[in-house]
Amino acid sequence: MDSHLVPRGSDRNYTGFLTKTIVYSGTLLMFLTAFGLTISSIVVPKWVSYSNHKHSYSYGLHRRCSSLTDTCESFPQGEDCHGEGRYFCSMWRSVGFLMSFAVVLEGISVVSYLIILSGGKRLRESGWKVLSLLIVLGAVVQAASVSIVAYLYDNEDRFFAGWKLGESWVYCTVSWGLSLVCAVVLVLAANTLPSEGGYELIPDHF
Q1: Which residue from 185, 141, 149 is spatially nearest to 170, judged by alpha carbons?
Q2: How far is CA 71 from CA 1, 22, 53, 58, 168, in A?
Q3: Which of 67, 85, 124, 169 could form a disulfide with 165, with the two C-beta atoms 3.0–4.6 Å apart?
Q4: What are phi and psi of 60, to 5 degrees?
Q5: Structure pTM?
Q6: Which segments cross the bilayer (predicted)?
Q7: What is the rounded average pLDDT for all residues in the chain?
Q8: Collapsing DSSP states into helix, strand and coil, what is residue 74?
């Protein structure tokens, strides 16, 4: 008895493996860019900034910097969270917590990507559901963070004329935008691309 490989059914598209791999790989690269921007938005202390021809100041999620001293100090500190500053302190710390949570979600998403890409057909066919959900959750958390900072920027007296939303805020905004694009592409690919085909052994009888 001899055997040879033939396509498993005429309705199967066995280029699906390559196509889905390209989609997962391409969106992973985009998502890694978004992940890097998320990390940068946390590390770079410029969510809200002010500058004139003499001085510059900036607020990061965990540091506050001033050109007067050429140093950055931990922020918010205990004295920033009393009296009238209590509300601002609470909201600012909430943003810091949300962004840390977003990093966790994005890290899990990257691991999910790698598991799906290294797994079998079943993972590539169904893994997009959990992966896209994780990506969207991370994007929602980041969108909430930039919204809170924008609200504080518009309503807090400490941010008078001359202050502006800084580059870290922009990093985060671009990050969650890219994440949403990745999620949309995954959902569209799962519902429009053909299923992966395969081959099976067919014996030859003499």
Answers
A1: 149
A2: 80, 46, 18, 11, 18
A3: 169
A4: -105, 180
A5: 0.84
A6: 21-44, 95-118, 130-153, 168-190
A7: 86
A8: strand
